[in-house]
Each structure stands twice: as structure tokens, then as C-alpha cells.
Design brief:
alpha+beta, single chain, two-stranded antiparallel ribbon, about 475 residues, 9 helices, elongated
């Protein structure tokens, strides 16, 4: 009895020792070097997101900074009812199921069986014909001595995290898509208004020119030019009407509703988000990017896959057992003398024509692809932040110059009209002033829309915003 206890204790120690082993190297973070992405004073910066902050998945409802209730409603509906987002949520459910299955691989497997046979052969020997019935429970358990199953569990867990961050990334993209579509709708409405005003102005001038031509006061060339200018303004009206309608339809598709017209009561000039950009954009803000974190989680999963593939080249230890009863006489079936069996087995690959090694090489190659994809996502994110911060720093100056251009063009148009009516100048001067005023108004509208979209793009590039001073202090306090 004492020897059996010692044998059991020795087996337990060996088992626990094996359980602490894991094939393959554990993920230690991946460093990405970038050259002067932000003006932080260093010639090179190293980013490592091995220890990720919890706030990366909890961005504020930053679209509310535009203080537009309709925009707020559209974004909220899109987050709840967008079909692409609902489909992406299924990826998370699938990843959770996969993780649950992977965890169960570490546990014993139980089953049952019932077998009935009739004949005169048993184990190759011929005897009298008889019936045989066996039924019972079976159990098997693969001991994870090399950590192969735990590596697969690690891979499944990180793919679940990747799917969750991928979902967050889709949410962020959906919000920016809704906002861009909304701004385009407002831009189209304002351009439509400009086209309608210019069409009405040119129509009234065409009536005057037609009357003067009928009386022989002006030549035919003036009448033709007036008709051309009227047609240029008039043909843009249905074009912008189409853009207004289609942009509204696109918005309703994004929020999961049937396409219809959209009633807006605000102009782009009224949308002035109260934003204070930091003087410097610290590199650690990229840790907020869900798409960057998603790529790193996939890298961790690929690293675990390498360890699992290496484990497939090593022997496996399994325990098995069965318990039941059997009889060759159905009338004599009883459980007073049950049948049982326990056993252990060690099995491993011997000669597989190098297939298992090639599988390890494939997993290593896929890990390298995941590493490259992660590095590319970091560099792309940094570039997006840089692009949008530069854009916002230049739009105000551009808008100011365009406003001065519009004011001057409208004033010139008014003066040219008066000069032409008084016969002081040619009609060509007035036509040119009309064209310049029309172009200037449209250019100003488009740049205002681009500025709003740049705000949205910068928020997206920063993963949904940036830390203010209080948040940064809180984060520093939590890390200490």
C-alpha cells in the first residue's frame, strides 16, 4: 500500500512538471521602429503594445462634439442596426465558441458504447455460434505534457481578442462613414442652394438680354452667351438634387432602414466642433487604435500556432479507461461482476516524410506575415495621424482665403452687372464675374466639408480621440 502511494505521488509530480512545459517561445511584444513620425525630439521611436491599456476599447461618443442631434441619432442607430456590424458581431460569437472548444481539449473525454455481435468466430478462432452483448462507459484523456493544447488555447484566446478589436474597428469605421455621408449630404444641399440661386440670377439676366436682343440693342452673341451661362447653372441643379437624394439613401442604408429623404435643419457653417488639438500628438495614442491592437493579437495567435505545430512533432501521452458489463446470454445480464480496464499509451510520429517540420515552417512563415501586417498597421496609423493633423492645421487658412475670394467675387459680379446695364463694359466681363462667383462659392462649400471630414478622420486615426490632461494623469496613476 505504501509503495502504491509513493508511486502515485511520483506520477503526480512528473505530471505537474510536464504541465509547466510549453513548446515554442512565448510572445514578448513586437517592437516597431519609426523615423520621426511625431515631433517628439527623437530621431527614432520604438512602440511596443505588449501591455495594452483598458481604455483602448472604450472611446467617448466624440461625434457629439458637433452638437447636432440629427447626426447623433444617425450614428446611434447605425451602431445598433447596421447589417455589416451585426454580421461582424457573429465573428465574435464564433471566436468565443472556438475558445470554449479549445479549453475543453484540456479535459478528459467521456463516452458510452453498446455493442452486439453474433457468430461463430472470436479472435480468429472458430467455435460454436453464440451471441455477445457489451455496454459501458469509456474515458480518454490526452495529457498536455508539452503544452501543445495550451498553445492552441492561447491562439484561440487571442483570435477572440482580435475579433473583438476587429469589431471595435468596424464600429469606428462605421461612425466615420456615417459622419462623412452626413457631411456630404449637407455639402450637396448647400451646393444645390448655390446652383439654384445662380440659376435664378442667370435666368433673370437671360430674360433681360432676350428683350434687348428682340429690340436690336445687343448682338446675338450676348444672347447665346447668356443662354450658355444659364444652362451651366441650370444643369448643375439636377446633379446636386441627385446627390442630395442619393446621399440620404446611403445614410438610411447605413442605419439599417429603408431609403428615404432626410430633413436637415443645420448648415455646415454651424457645425463647429469644440476641439482643442494637443500641441504634440504622443505616439502612445496609437495604442488606442483597435485595428492596430487587432493585428497584434493575430500576431500573438500566430506565435502560439508555431508552438502547437512544434508540439505535433513530439510524442503524446494519453490515459484511457472503460467500465461496463458483457454477456453471451441476454437472460443472464447483471452488473454484479462488471468489466473494467485502465491503461496509458505513449505515441509519437516516427517517419512522416518531413511533413510535420514543413508544417512548423509554414506556421513560422505565417507568423512572419502577421508580424509584417502588425508593423504596417502601426506605420499606416502614424501616417494617418500625421496627414490629418497637417490637414486641420491648414484648412482654416484656406477657408479664410476662400471666404475673401467669395466676398470679392460676389462684389465684382454685382459691379459688373451694374456696369453692363449702364453700357460701360462688355457682356463678357459680366459673364466672367458670374463664373468666378459661382466657382468660388462651390469651392468654399467643398473645403468646409473637407475640414469637417478631416476632424472625423483624425479622430478615427487616433482610435476615437486622444487623452486629455486629466485622462493622462489618471492613466499614469494607474500604471504606478
Amino acid at each position: 500500500m505504501k509503495n502504491k502511494g509513493l508511486l502515485f505521488f511520483t506520477a503526480l509530480v512528473i505530471f505537474l512538471g510536464f504541465q509547466s512545459c510549453k513548446v515554442g517561445r512565448s510572445y514578448k511584444g513586437s517592437e516597431v521602429e519609426m523615423r520621426v513620425v511625431f515631433e517628439d525630439g527623437d530621431s527614432s521611436i520604438t512602440l511596443n503594445t505588449d501591455s495594452l491599456q483598458s481604455f483602448v476599447v472604450d472611446g467617448p461618443a466624440w461625434w457629439k462634439l458637433f452638437e447636432d442631434k440629427l447626426l447623433d441619432t444617425l450614428v446611434s442607430k447605425a451602431l445598433k442596426h447596421n447589417y455589416s456590424l451585426l454580421s461582424a458581431a457573429e465573428n465574435i460569437l464564433q471566436a468565443r465558441r472556438s475558445l470554449g472548444m479549445s479549453k475543453k481539449d484540456l479535459l478528459p473525454q467521456f463516452g458510452y458504447g453498446l455493442q452486439f455481435a453474433s457468430g461463430n468466430t472470436l479472435g480468429g478462432f472458430v467455435g460454436p455460434e453464440q451471441d455477445f452483448l457489451f455496454g459501458g462507459l469509456t474515458a480518454s484523456w490526452e495529457i498536455d505534457i508539452w503544452g501543445k493544447l495550451r498553445r492552441r488555447n492561447e491562439a484561440a484566446r487571442n483570435r477572440l481578442l482580435a475579433s473583438e478589436y476587429g469589431y471595435r474597428s468596424m464600429q469606428l469605421s462605421l461612425v466615420t462613414t456615417v459622419m462623412d455621408a452626413y457631411f456630404f449630404h449637407l455639402e450637396s444641399k448647400e451646393l444645390l442652394g448655390i446652383a439654384q440661386r445662380n440659376t435664378a440670377l442667370r435666368d433673370s439676366m437671360l430674360i433681360i438680354i432676350q428683350a434687348r436682343f428682340d429690340k436690336g440693342i445687343v448682338p446675338a452673341i450676348d444672347l447665346d452667351q447668356a443662354k450658355i451661362q444659364y444652362a451651366i447653372a441650370a444643369e448643375s441643379v439636377p446633379m446636386f438634387e441627385r446627390a442630395v437624394a442619393q446621399s440620404a439613401y446611403a445614410l438610411f442604408v447605413l442605419i439599417g432602414e429603408m431609403p428615404q429623404s432626410l430633413s436637415t435643419q443645420i448648415s455646415m457653417s454651424e457645425l463647429q466642433p469644440k476641439l482643442e488639438l494637443p500641441e504634440r500628438l504622443p505616439l502612445e495614442l496609437l495604442n488606442r487604435r483597435p485595428d492596430v491592437v487587432e493585428k497584434e493579437r493575430l500576431l500573438v495567435a500566430a506565435n502560439a500556432d508555431v508552438g502547437a505545430a512544434q508540439g505535433d512533432r513530439l510524442p503524446t501521452l494519453s490515459l484511457s479507461g472503460s467500465f461496463g458489463t458483457g454477456t453471451n446470454d441476454l437472460g443472464d445480464l447483471n452488473f454484479t461482476d462488471p468489466l473494467w480496464q485502465v491503461g496509458a499509451g505513449l505515441a509519437g510520429p516516427l517517419f512522416y516524410w518531413n511533413q510535420l517540420k514543413q508544417r512548423v515552417d509554414i506556421e513560422k512563415s505565417q507568423r512572419e506575415q502577421a508580424r509584417i501586417a502588425y508593423q504596417l498597421s502601426v506605420l499606416s496609423a502614424a501616417n494617418e495621424v500625421k496627414d490629418q493633423s497637417v490637414a486641420l492645421s491648414t484648412f482654416d487658412q484656406q477657408i479664410q482665403l476662400l471666404e475673401e475670394r467669395v466676398e470679392a467675387a460676389l462684389h465684382a459680379q454685382k459691379l459688373s452687372q451694374a456696369r453692363y446695364s449702364q453700357g460701360v463694359t462688355s457682356y463678357l466681363e459680366y459673364l466672367e464675374s458670374q463664373r468666378q462667383a459661382f466657382d468660388a462659392e462651390r469651392a468654399l462649400t467643398r473645403v468646409k466639408s473637407q475640414k469637417l471630414s478631416a476632424y472625423v478622420a483624425l479622430y478615427k486615426a487616433l482610435g476615437g480621440g486622444w487623452l486629455d490632461e486629466q485622462e493622462r494623469n489618471n492613466q499614469d496613476g494607474n500604471s504606478q
